Amino acid sequence: MRIPQLIEKIGPFVSLEFFPPKKQEEWPDFLATARELSRLRPLFVSVTYGAGGSTQSNTLEICERLIDTCGFEVMPHLTSVTANREKIDGFLEAIRALGIDNVLALRGDRPAGYTGTDAELFATFPHAADLVTHIRARYPDLAIGVAGFPEAHAEAPSLAADLDVMRHKVKCGANFVITQVYFDNRVYFDYVDRLRTRGVTVPIVPAILPIRNLTSLRFILEMCNARIPGRLINALTKAHEQGGAGAVHEIGMAYAREQIKELLDGGAPGVHLYTLNKADMCLAVLDGLL
Q: How far apart are CA 103 and CA 94, in angstroms?
């Protein structure tokens, strides 16, 4: 079923993001984790698509396994990195054959070690909006999600310009938005308000990434254009000094729970949780909140 219709029918929800293990010998453990997380009754789950489509076949097979073994409503990611129309259409035909009604359309990031130009990397679909336009024209029955950047995309000249890009993606056919990671809920609510004033009425789902350790925090800072509130940095640093990795984990989980509760109390339609393929983390963060 199309995700926007699911959101309309169901109250506050959780959705989950998985990334397929590259090695097939790791799939049984991954699927066991997914089955454990089915206890959360996610509205849908998203499945990542490797840089340059490097795990495209894994994405399709994992989607099929998640449908068959867990009964999930699945939304695969799709990027325009090194893609052409034939490649995109082949992927979309494959997901339609699996009965999948939703896709997350992304421009995607530069693969590690890539030395070519952006013009070469994104030759057919330079922007996510171009990919959305193609999907909407060829597959009008698919629901299309796009990524939103509450603190603006790293390449955007300003927040206002980034908001205009989002309005354009919706005008091209996007049906809902899932935000990138952020750590201050005021940023999310301000982002929603600014988009609403620009006439964007589609659902905007906030994404939450619990901080498990200081290594994951450094990765977040390197990969995402997200600011970490001073009180969170201070709490994590103090926890590490006094209690080590376990104390940092507890602070990260508690902060994610606080974020989620505040979002749902403030009227967010639901939350999209980055699972990191860790069932224990997700179950602890969401315990009693939904």
A: 12
